[in-house]
Design goal:
- The chain is of the alpha/beta class.
- It has one domain: 3-Layer(aba) Sandwich (Rossmann fold), CATH 3.40.50.
- The chain has eight helices and six strands; from the N terminus they run E-H-E-H-E-H-H-E-H-H-E-E-H-H.
- It has a six-stranded parallel β-sheet, sandwiched between helices.
- Strand 1, helix 1 and strand 2 form a beta-alpha-beta unit.
- The model has no long low-confidence stretch (mean pLDDT about 90).
- It binds adenosine-5'-triphosphate and magnesium ion.
- The site of adenosine-5'-triphosphate (ATP) has 18 residues, from helix 1, strand 4, helix 5 and helix 7.
- This is Probable nicotinate-nucleotide adenylyltransferase.
- It is an enzyme of class 2 (transferase).
Length: about 200
């Protein structure tokens, strides 16, 4: 009989997909909280190329969004950034993201971290069963925002309340356009990047 030599647990990797236009402290707190509660070894941030439900909206170039994500995560040695969605190109589908990360890290258990709103959309897709085979899903909610968990497969999805963070990328973009500060809503380096390249001015 084959006896396992060492009982080394499989590493667990969180995947945080997003447009990150721009990345803000809500994203970072959600990733940090998921890492702590689910004992993840690392979180990979994956900027999307194009999101199905954001088609038609003007999105900042993938390279700017990628680089701002790198800057925002640079100080945390458990946070990394992956280019899989950007380099694949076209519309980003979560199933492709999971397949690519799994191919790179077949040794690891994957946890897909997503806002509860996005989670409800994902669950309604036709191939959602396959998604739940590939990863455990963590739906992050804000205190006071109740998520309807009925219809979500119990053992494939967990809900996680993160500290109140009423920050959204849309709001950050609007603030920049109106000349209002985004200091402390996004990391300092991201504020400087936005100013340096004049992003979100119109
Ligand atoms: P937009 O306002 O343009 O929709 P966003 O702030 O929702 O942008 P995304 O890049 O679309 O940012 O979000 C990536 C993921 O992070 C999504 O799953 C989203 O639900 C989640 N998320 C966004 N903002 C927060 C927040 N303040 N707290 C927790 N999770 C968040
Ligand atoms: Mg959003």
């Amino acid at each position: 009989a084959v006896v396992p030599v060492a009982n080394k647990p499989r590493p667990s990797i969180g995947i945080m997909g997003g447009t990150f236009d721009p990345i803000h402290h809500g994203h970072l707190v959600a990733a940090s909280e998921a890492m702590s509660v689910f004992n993840l070894d690392q979180v990979v941030f994956v900027p999307t190329q194009m999101q199905p439900f954001k088609a038609g909206r003007k999105v900042t170039s993938a390279e700017h969004r990628y680089l701002m994500t790198v800057i925002a995560t640079a100080s945390n040695n458990r946070f990394t950034v992956s280019r899989v969605d950007i380099d694949r190109g076209g519309t980003t589908y979560t199933i492709d993201t999971l397949r690519d990360i799994h191919q790179q890290r077949p040794d690891a258990d994957l946890f897909f971290i997503t806002g509860a709103d996005a989670l409800q959309q994902i669950v309604s897709w036709k191939d959602s069963d396959k998604l739940f085979e590939m990863a455990h899903f963590i739906g992050v909610t804000r205190p006071g925002h109740k998520l309807d968990a009925s219809g979500l497969p119990k053992n494939a999805v967990s809900l996680l309340e993160v500290p109140a963070m009423a920050i959204s990328s849309s709001d950050c973009r609007a603030r920049v356009r109106e000349g209002k500060p985004v200091w402390y809503l996004v990391p300092d380096g991201v504020v400087q990047w936005i100013n340096k390249y004049g992003l979100y001015k119109n």
